[in-house]
Amino acid sequence: MSSFKNADAGVIVDHLIKTIQEQRDYLSEIDGKIGDGDHGINMNKGVTMCEDKLKGQTYNMSEGLCALGETLLEDIGGSMGPLYGLLFDELSAASEDQEDIDVEVFGKMITKAAEGIQEISPAKLGDKTLLDTLIPAKEAFIIAKEAGKDFSECLDAMRDAAKKGWESTKDMIAKIGRSSRLGERSRGVLDAGATSCYFILDCLASSIQSIL
C-alpha cells in the first residue's frame, strides 16, 4: 500500500508521545551542556499531559496531532513549547480533511510544518536549532517524491537527512537563544532542539512505515 487511513493512525501520535517520554533524560542531558537543561523535562511534561487528555478517547492521526499541538502551545513555556506546538498544529491542519494519507499529503504536512516554524522563528539554517534537522528532512522528502520514489522511500530519505542535519549541529556555533551567549564554547555539543526534532521525524517515519 502507498497510503494509510487517517482514521486508523492515531497510533502514530501514541508512538510520538512514547518516544519523547523515553528520550526525556537524554534530551535534558544534552540541553544541560549549553542550555537550561530542561528541554527533556518540558517536552515530557507536555506529551504526558496530552496522553492524559487522550486517554480513553478514539482519535485519528490529525486529531491526535492537534491535541499534541494545543497542549504544547498552551501548557509548556520556554521557546520550544510554541515551536513544537506549531509544528504539530501544522501537521494536523494539513491532513485533517484527508481520509487517506499518501506521499502527496505527507509532503504538504512536512512542508507546512517547516514553513510555519520559519515564519515565527528568527533562526536560519546553520544557527544550531531544530531547523537544521527539519529543513533538510523536508527538502529530502520533497526531492525523493518529485523523483518518483514511493512513500516509504521518501520517508527513508527524510529520516536520513534529518539524522545528518541533527548531527551537523555538533560543529555549529549557536546563534539563537541562551546558548548563543557561549559563542565558540557552544561548538562540540549537539543542539537539544535539533535532537528532539530528529527523534520526532524518525518516529514519524517508522510509525508510518509500520502501517503502510
UniProtKB/TrEMBL annotation:
The keyword Kinase applies. This is Dihydroxyacetone kinase subunit DhaL. Keywords: Kinase, Transferase. The gene is dhaL. It comes from Anaerostipes hominis (ex Lee et al. 2021). Pfam families: Dak2 (PF02734). SUPFAM superfamilies: DhaL-like. It comes from the Bacteria. InterPro entries: DhaK_L_YcgS (IPR012737), DhaL_dom (IPR004007), DhaL_dom_sf (IPR036117), Dihydroxyacetone_Kinase (IPR050861). It is an enzyme of class 2 (transferase).
